From TrEMBL:
<dbReference type="Pfam" id="PF00582">
    <property type="entry name" value="Usp"/>
</dbReference>
<dbReference type="InterPro" id="IPR006015">
    <property type="entry name" value="Universal_stress_UspA"/>
</dbReference>
<comment type="similarity">
    <text>Belongs to the universal stress protein A family.</text>
</comment>
<feature type="domain" description="UspA">
    <location>
        <begin position="2"/>
        <end position="150"/>
    </location>
</feature>
<dbReference type="InterPro" id="IPR051688">
    <property type="entry name" value="USP_A"/>
</dbReference>
<dbReference type="InterPro" id="IPR014729">
    <property type="entry name" value="Rossmann-like_a/b/a_fold"/>
</dbReference>
<protein>
    <submittedName>
        <fullName>Universal stress protein family</fullName>
    </submittedName>
</protein>
<dbReference type="InterPro" id="IPR006016">
    <property type="entry name" value="UspA"/>
</dbReference>
């Protein structure tokens, strides 16, 4: 039986990766699917009591933006989960904060995933190294096999 971790960033590539997984795996071999989205943390800011009135209003606006990132990530994992619910009843979702590649790798290790599925954007090798592609980092540091789809 297989436990698959699917990473999503809400992009169409992520959804295509989930759909591609459907074509590869026999549902009978699939024990569990975990879907993860990672929200990058916003820059640390001083405590609200350190702000004047204008700065406090700016902090409230930034906090509102943070919640929208969280909501978007939750919607992204739900969208991918819905694509796979008929393959197995065991579909879990999670949203974590941090560096995406690090959190995907950590989740795969913690969950003892047998396979990680990520969507790639099709950048060349040099661009991936320079830009620090999440798929590239996961591919080279994951504790299990990685399927990168285009």
């Amino acid at each position: 039986m297989t436990h698959v971790l699917i990473a999503t960033d809400g992009s169409e590539q992520s959804l295509k990766a989930a759909r591609y997984l459907r074509s590869l795996l026999d549902p009978a071999s699939l024990e569990r699917v975990s879907v993860i989205a990672v929200v990058r943390p916003l820059a640390a800011v001083p405590f609200a009591s350190d702000f004047g009135e204008e700065e406090h209003a700016a902090q409230e606006a930034e906090d509102a933006g943070r919640y929208s990132f969280q909501r978007a990530a939750q919607e992204a994992v739900q969208r991918v989960a819905e694509e796979l619910r008929d393959m197995t009843p065991n579909v879990d979702t999670m949203v974590r904060g941090g560096a995406p590649a690090d959190q995907i790798i950590r989740a795969a290790d913690e969950l003892e995933a047998d396979l990680i599925v990520v969507g790639g954007r099709g950048k060349g090798t040099v661009a991936a190294i320079v830009l620090g592609s999440v798929a590239y980092q996961v591919l080279h540091h994951a504790p299990c096999p990685v399927l990168v789809t285009r």
